[in-house]
Each structure stands twice: as structure tokens, then as C-alpha cells.
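User: Hi! I'm working on a homework problem where we have to compare a predicted structure to a textbook description. Could you give me the structure for the chain below?
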Amino acid sequence: MIVFDLKCPQGHRFEEWFASSDDFENKLASHAVRCPECGEHHLEKAIMAPRVNGGAQAPAVGPCGQAACAAGPCAFAGS
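Assistant: Happy to help. Predicted C-alpha cells:
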């Protein structure tokens, strides 16, 4: 899966997930993706800030997958 930041001609920005770059291109060409605010289907990729791992360790996570749970009792336990 890949996520792209998209924008419409009215300047609305949103994220959308695709199976691949080809999936994005196919859905864009067939107008299967629309702006959630105005319904526009003429979209383009917005400038994205990629996540770059500078060698830092990923935060520890608890059994539920949340970083907040690693340091103590799970906030989601019993829910």
C-alpha cells in the first residue's frame, strides 16, 4: 500500500491510499478518486514530506501496538 497527498483545483488537500503507483494512475485516469470536500475528479499529487529514518530507534510499543503502552499499564486494557 502507498499513500499520496492529493489536491484538487480548489486547493483542497487530502490523503488517499492505493495498492501501487499503477493503481493510483488507473484510478486517476478513470476518475475513481474524487475530492471528499467538493467532488472534483481532476486531481494531482501534492508535495509530500517523506518520512526519513535518520538512524533513530523506533519507539517501543506495547502488546496492543500503541507506543503509550510500552512505558506502563496499557491505556486500552479492559476496553
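For your comparison, note the following. Strands lie at 2-7, 13-18, 44-45. Residues 21-29 form the longest helix (9 residues). Good luck with the assignment!
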